[in-house]
Amino acid sequence: MAYLKELFNENFLEYASYVVKERAIPHINDGLKPVQRRIMHSLIEMDDGKYNKVANVVGNSMKYHPHGDAAIYSALVVLANKGLFIDRQGNFGNTLTGDPASAARYIECRPAKLTYETVYNPEITEYELSYDGRNKEPKTYPAKFPIALVQGAEGIAVGMVAKILPHNFAEVLSAMKDALYDRPFTVVPDFYTGGYIDVSKYDEGRGRVLVRAKIEERSAKDVVITEIPYGTTTESLIASIESAVRKDKVKVTRVDDYSTDRAEVHLRVKRGFTAAEVIQSLYAFTDCEKSITSNILFIHENKPRVFTVSEVVVFAAQQLRDVLRKELELERHKLQEKLHRRSLELIFVSERIYKKIENKRKQETIVAAVVEGLLPFKKELYRDITEQDVEYLLSIPIRRISAYDIQKARNAVRSMEERIAEIRRLLSDMVSYAAQWIDTMLQQYGERFSRQTTIVDMDPTSAHEAAVRDRDLKYNGNKGYLGYDLEDTPTRFKVSVYDRILVIDREGTYRVIDAPEKIFIGYRLRYIGLATEENLDAVIFSLLYRHTPSGTLFLKRCKIKKYILDKKYSLLPDDSCELLELRDESEGGFVVRLITTGRMKKTQLVCPFEKYAVKGVGAKGYKITSKEVDSVRYYKEREQENDSLPLFEQE
């Protein structure tokens, strides 16, 4: 048993490690998953300038990717639709509508120009053996910008998930330039689907964004969706709309999809409702509004690590400097070798050193003669003379020597020396050179990658607020029923199925309930109202109650702001109190008539609401009188007679 446990633990760890590093999570160096990297390697390997059948590319990729042709084909289609590295021909599907791509045997592709400009350089790429040891594939590409940050990436591994939202290519390059100069920068997502985005809670890629469709009100009865949220298609969006229509949450009678390369979904507003109400309900009850969580997870130094957007940009800026430095050093090395050979040729011909070997018969004497002839010009060469250099000079045909253009050779040498000097200057200031490279790329591709998604500030649309109030809430005090499915009962107000109702009974007990279809709530309620945040903040309850043991009368004014749904509360301090009067008006007051006794001079007390401060719902209120009360009544307009206020104490 212990052996099996150890075996399972070891195998599971190996499996988990493989899934994380070799399948699901992109690498920070080039932002590619293994399957994407192998597809690009195959495309470059097969590239002859012409389009290749996707089926052939998939077949060639299977030399490197051991997971079947279906996985390679779907990954290639997704990568091609990103519009960065693959030049495509044929039907690759429609990312807006959700239409699938044609079969692999019908569509064609080849590497795009951007691939060679920003990713591919075999001379500075580290290669490793493929899974079967027959071929070599790149470990990672020397990418010059953060690919995953631009095109986005998703992957589910064992115990972790990568969710990298796509960002604008030009904006990311501009941010890299700022990072090179240690200037502050901000980068936020940008989606090919357009729409609106709120990035207030993006938190450098550690939070979430709120995305919305762009919806236009073409007329009082016509609404058109012209841009859709990221992560949806017009097909999935229409499905969510039709589901909401069936549940009577969105009031439309027709949904027509005219989308092509741009989204265009037409909605017909139901009679009796407005386009504005429909737009609000679309945001509240359909996929027209979504919240998307971000988790920027990469493989870094052979293990997974969560990054922020700024960290990825700074890493990419540093890698750009390193890659450009390697390219310059490689170019300088090649130029120096070429200049060395060209200088040898020029000296060999112009100084007529080839004449010194005319009478030589042995190889040793020939080589020695050439070396001896070149020694006076050693300072003009970039390195020491080798045996291979002599062999090269001796292999020059006499025909070429006789037609040798010395001036042209000198011009070529001068040109190479100038370029080497320029490379030396560029290497001394790599920040400026990297910034210059970024400027060149922005000039070439800036217009092509313009921002598609509009950045706005917005709050999530509440389903409660967006729901159309189209139901008549009724209350039958004689039978004690409340709901919108009551007959022969006058309507109190309009509600939606998402509304909540505040009810207060005769004893001062209150609770908040969902708007009911029909429910027994009790006889002769004192208050029924909407429990929206605005209503609860606006309504001030004024109540008179009596403390029964002492007979003391209290006046209390309060607001009901917090509650737990369906939980009962009381406006009164305890069970020994009796509610006499309750009003939700903000103006007016109470008139208290006292029972006349012996020498009483004042038999009536006027209590205007404006003289009493609004307290918390748990407050005791103000003491009005300890004398016996005959009656109380509410007045709306101030009493003209006997309107002096009683003395009171705050409890």
What does this structure look like?
This protein is α+β, with helices and mostly antiparallel strands and 651 residues long. It has four domains: 18-182 and 296-306, Alpha-Beta Complex (Topoisomerase II, domain 5); 214-287, Gyrase A, domain 2, CATH 3.30.1360.40; 333-445, Topoisomerase, domain 3 (Orthogonal Bundle), CATH 1.10.268; 463-650, no CATH class. 34% of the residues lie in helices and 22% in strands. It has 17 helices and 33 strands. The strands form ten sheets. It has a five-stranded antiparallel beta sheet, with no helix packed on it. The chain has a four-stranded mixed beta sheet with strand order 14-9-8-17. The protein has a four-stranded antiparallel beta sheet with strand order 10-11-13-12, with helices on one face. A hairpin with a 4-residue loop joins strand 21 (500-504) and strand 22 (509-514). Helix 3 packs across helix 4. The radius of gyration is 41 Å and the shape is elongated. It starts with a helix and ends with a strand. Mean pLDDT is 87; it is low at 639-651.
**Could you say which structural class the secondary elements and strand pairing correspond to?**
alpha+beta
Give the N-terminus to C-terminus distance in angstroms: 73 Å
Shape: elongated
Rg calculated over all Cα atoms: 41 Å
Q: In what range is the share of β-strand residues? A: 15-25%
Count of discrete alpha- or pi-helical segments spanning 4 or more residues: 17
Protein name: DNA topoisomerase IV subunit A
GO molecular function: ATP binding; DNA binding; DNA topoisomerase type II (double strand cut, ATP-hydrolyzing) activity
InterPro entries: Topo_IIA-like_dom_sf (IPR013760), Topo_IIA_A/C_ab (IPR013758), Topo_IIA_A_a_sf (IPR013757), Topo_IIA_dom_A (IPR002205), Type_II_DNA_Topoisomerases (IPR050220)
Active site: 106
